[in-house]
User: Fold this.
Amino acid sequence: MEDSRKLLRRSVYSFLQNYQFFTSIAAVLAFPYAISVLLSQTVLPSSSLFSSAFDHFRALFDAAGFPISSKFFSILIQKLSQTVVSSIYSLPFSLTFLLISKACVIQALNQQKPSLEPSFSSIMSLFNPLLVTHVCNSFVFVSVNATVFFLLFFAFNCLQGFGFFSPNWIMWVSVFGAFLYSIAIAKAIIICNLASVLSGMERKGGFMSILKAWVLIQGRSATALLVALPFNMGMAGIEALFQYRIVGGYHSRERLGVWMVVEGMFVAYLYSVFVVLDAIVNTMFFKSYRMGYGMCLERKRCVCCWMDVGEKESEGGWPPLEGP
Assistant:
């Protein structure tokens, strides 16, 4: 298994080696998804759906006994509402353009000849597994959020029951909750991204891909996090740039000029490039694990992927799944 720096270098090298193909994916396929994400965050403050989601989350947290007056829970409720509404607005594009762009990246990097562009039929053969896994990933994110909120609910009610419901205790539990929530969400993102790549490689989607991705990530969480962090921070920075340059410029001038539209399209294109780079680095991470698959030859069976080691491994192929 390679370290994070080598994986990042290999990912960037693969992107530059097939620069025209990957930038075409970013311009044609990932670009509509990038536009939908950036614009959905623009209309959030004035959206009635956002106000409704914020009020519902606030009422839910208040009924659960959380101190919603604290700054931590105010920010958390606002971010949850933004994430839910933004996901709803960009859902048609994430289920189509995003998945097809990921399929293009996975198929291109999985071929024996990387310079050969994948055919349309081979790309669409990955769409159904990626779609099923994407839906299952949504359930995983809901489950992770529910689990963390249940633990926080239990902690705050225990503090209140034992009489430790002071501002200092609320602050320390809130800090611990923020730390726990960040770790849980980061690991869920890594596992779900890897599950999407795995389902594309095997052409089998669903919760089994997520389970295998979770097993595969054991002992490699730090490497996966360091690999995924730069591109996710880059996408977050581009979102902030869009808010500052385009949204802020529109509110200050109260009109949308031609150059502002051009600049907004360029920022959206940068976001789509980072979407493609994120798919590349996740695919390269899985391929790096697969290159170390020969370590399981002595066992005659890979316990991480539940796959038998056959003659296809010596030919560079990936043995079929036979079940746990």
